[in-house]
Amino acid sequence: MEVSAPHSPGASEEVAGAWRVDDAVSDLAAVLTAAGATSHVVLASHSEAGEIASYFVRSHPGWVGGAVLVDASLPAFYTDGEIDRVVAADKAQISVLARQDDGARWRPWRSRSTRRRGS
Protein backbone atom coordinates (compact mmCIF):
# COMPACT_ATOMS: atom_id res chain seq x y z
CA MET A 1 0.00 0.00 0.00
CA GLU A 2 1.23 3.47 -0.85
CA VAL A 3 -0.14 6.76 0.44
CA SER A 4 0.18 10.03 -1.41
CA ALA A 5 -1.11 13.44 -0.34
CA PRO A 6 -0.90 15.99 -3.14
CA HIS A 7 -0.94 19.61 -2.01
CA SER A 8 -4.52 20.83 -2.15
CA PRO A 9 -5.43 24.08 -3.92
CA GLY A 10 -7.00 25.55 -0.78
CA ALA A 11 -3.74 25.27 1.16
CA SER A 12 -1.48 26.95 -1.38
CA GLU A 13 -0.77 30.44 -2.61
CA GLU A 14 -3.28 32.27 -4.80
CA VAL A 15 -3.28 31.01 -8.39
CA ALA A 16 -4.01 33.41 -11.23
CA GLY A 17 -7.25 32.84 -13.09
CA ALA A 18 -10.49 31.14 -12.21
CA TRP A 19 -10.51 27.87 -10.28
CA ARG A 20 -12.02 25.09 -12.38
CA VAL A 21 -12.92 21.64 -11.15
CA ASP A 22 -11.89 20.18 -14.52
CA ASP A 23 -8.36 21.54 -14.04
CA ALA A 24 -8.18 20.03 -10.54
CA VAL A 25 -9.37 16.65 -11.89
CA SER A 26 -6.75 16.84 -14.64
CA ASP A 27 -4.06 17.68 -12.07
CA LEU A 28 -5.10 14.72 -9.90
CA ALA A 29 -5.02 12.39 -12.91
CA ALA A 30 -1.53 13.65 -13.80
CA VAL A 31 -0.23 13.08 -10.25
CA LEU A 32 -1.70 9.57 -10.11
CA THR A 33 -0.38 8.71 -13.59
CA ALA A 34 3.11 9.91 -12.65
CA ALA A 35 2.93 7.74 -9.52
CA GLY A 36 1.81 4.72 -11.57
CA ALA A 37 -1.48 4.61 -9.64
CA THR A 38 -4.19 4.13 -12.24
CA SER A 39 -6.19 1.34 -10.62
CA HIS A 40 -7.47 0.43 -7.16
CA VAL A 41 -6.99 4.06 -6.05
CA VAL A 42 -8.75 5.01 -2.82
CA LEU A 43 -9.44 8.73 -2.68
CA ALA A 44 -9.71 10.41 0.72
CA SER A 45 -11.14 13.88 0.30
CA HIS A 46 -12.03 16.64 2.72
CA SER A 47 -14.14 19.73 2.11
CA GLU A 48 -13.83 21.13 -1.41
CA ALA A 49 -11.75 18.15 -2.51
CA GLY A 50 -14.99 16.14 -2.32
CA GLU A 51 -16.14 17.94 -5.45
CA ILE A 52 -12.87 17.07 -7.17
CA ALA A 53 -13.17 13.42 -6.11
CA SER A 54 -16.77 13.23 -7.37
CA TYR A 55 -15.82 14.51 -10.80
CA PHE A 56 -12.67 12.37 -10.87
CA VAL A 57 -14.65 9.18 -10.24
CA ARG A 58 -17.04 10.09 -13.07
CA SER A 59 -14.23 10.73 -15.54
CA HIS A 60 -11.92 7.87 -14.42
CA PRO A 61 -14.25 5.13 -13.09
CA GLY A 62 -11.80 2.29 -13.76
CA TRP A 63 -9.09 3.89 -11.65
CA VAL A 64 -10.97 4.16 -8.37
CA GLY A 65 -11.41 1.30 -5.93
CA GLY A 66 -13.05 3.41 -3.22
CA ALA A 67 -13.48 6.85 -1.75
CA VAL A 68 -13.71 8.43 1.69
CA LEU A 69 -15.46 11.80 1.72
CA VAL A 70 -15.06 13.75 4.96
CA ASP A 71 -17.28 16.82 5.37
CA ALA A 72 -17.15 16.98 1.61
CA SER A 73 -18.53 19.51 -0.81
CA LEU A 74 -20.52 17.65 -3.41
CA PRO A 75 -21.57 18.96 -6.85
CA ALA A 76 -25.26 18.25 -6.22
CA PHE A 77 -25.15 20.75 -3.35
CA TYR A 78 -24.30 23.67 -5.62
CA THR A 79 -27.61 24.07 -7.43
CA ASP A 80 -29.01 27.60 -7.51
CA GLY A 81 -32.00 26.51 -5.43
CA GLU A 82 -29.87 24.86 -2.76
CA ILE A 83 -27.49 27.82 -2.54
CA ASP A 84 -30.45 30.21 -2.18
CA ARG A 85 -31.94 27.99 0.56
CA VAL A 86 -28.69 27.87 2.55
CA VAL A 87 -28.04 31.60 2.19
CA ALA A 88 -31.59 32.41 3.33
CA ALA A 89 -31.30 30.05 6.31
CA ASP A 90 -27.95 31.55 7.33
CA LYS A 91 -28.73 35.21 6.58
CA ALA A 92 -29.24 36.23 10.22
CA GLN A 93 -26.05 34.50 11.36
CA ILE A 94 -24.07 35.99 8.48
CA SER A 95 -25.32 39.48 9.43
CA VAL A 96 -24.25 39.01 13.05
CA LEU A 97 -20.81 37.77 12.02
CA ALA A 98 -20.38 40.61 9.52
CA ARG A 99 -21.06 43.17 12.27
CA GLN A 100 -18.47 41.49 14.53
CA ASP A 101 -15.79 41.62 11.85
CA ASP A 102 -14.99 43.76 8.85
CA GLY A 103 -16.75 41.08 6.79
CA ALA A 104 -13.60 39.90 5.06
CA ARG A 105 -13.87 36.43 6.54
CA TRP A 106 -17.67 36.12 6.37
CA ARG A 107 -18.78 36.19 2.78
CA PRO A 108 -22.17 34.71 1.89
CA TRP A 109 -22.04 31.33 0.19
CA ARG A 110 -23.33 32.84 -3.03
CA SER A 111 -19.72 33.63 -3.99
CA ARG A 112 -19.03 29.87 -4.23
CA SER A 113 -21.70 29.35 -6.89
CA THR A 114 -19.32 30.67 -9.56
CA ARG A 115 -16.87 27.88 -8.74
CA ARG A 116 -19.12 24.91 -9.44
CA ARG A 117 -19.26 22.58 -12.39
CA GLY A 118 -15.95 23.59 -13.89
CA SER A 119 -16.90 27.21 -14.47
Walk me through the structure.
39% of the residues lie in helices and 11% in strands. The protein is an alpha+beta fold and 119 residues long. The chain has two domains: 73 residues, no CATH class; 42 residues, no CATH class. The chain has a two-stranded parallel ribbon with strand order 1-2. Helix 1 crosses helix 2. The C terminus is likely disordered.
Topology:
Blueprint: H1 21-34, E1 41-46, H2 49-59, E2 64-70, H3 80-100
Parallel strand pairs: 1-2
Helix pairs in contact: 1-2
Provide keyphrases for this structure.
single chain, 119 residues, alpha+beta, 2 domains, 2 strands, elongated
Total tally of structural domains: 2
Main sheet makeup: 2 strands, parallel
Task: Give the distance, in angstroms, between the N- and C-terminal Cα atoms.
Answer: 35 Å
User: What structural class do the secondary elements suggest?
Assistant: alpha+beta
Number of helices: 3
Helical residue percent band: 25-40%
User: What's the overall geometry?
Assistant: elongated
CA gyration radius, whole angstroms? 17 Å
Got a strand count? 2
Calculate the mean pLDDT score and round it.
Answer: 78
Uncertain segments: 108-119
Strand content bin: 5-15%
Order of H and E elements: HEHEH
| Widest sheet: strand ordering | 1-2
